[in-house]
């Protein structure tokens, strides 16, 4: 299955750097599993992480940004549930 991840970030809030850093972390960790990663400009304080058309993290719902470790675990649980993430699992 082709796995596609998208991060929608608020341009008004200048969250491109945060979105790109998260993208880099996920691509480094899941370079074999992810077929596509996209950054999508949004507005209104949005910071949503969407995997295979399903929102797995929403800043508006959680009231905070995801931690890198947390995001890696969320992605792993969807696309490679048996994979050990090493220090990110501790």
UniProtKB/TrEMBL annotation:
Keywords: Redox-active center. The keyword Lipid metabolism does not apply. Signal peptide: none annotated. Coiled coil: none annotated. The keyword Transferase does not apply. It holds the Pfam family Rdx. PANTHER family: SELENOPROTEIN DOMAIN PROTEIN (AFU_ORTHOLOGUE AFUA_1G05220) (PTHR36417:SF2). This is Selenoprotein W-related protein.
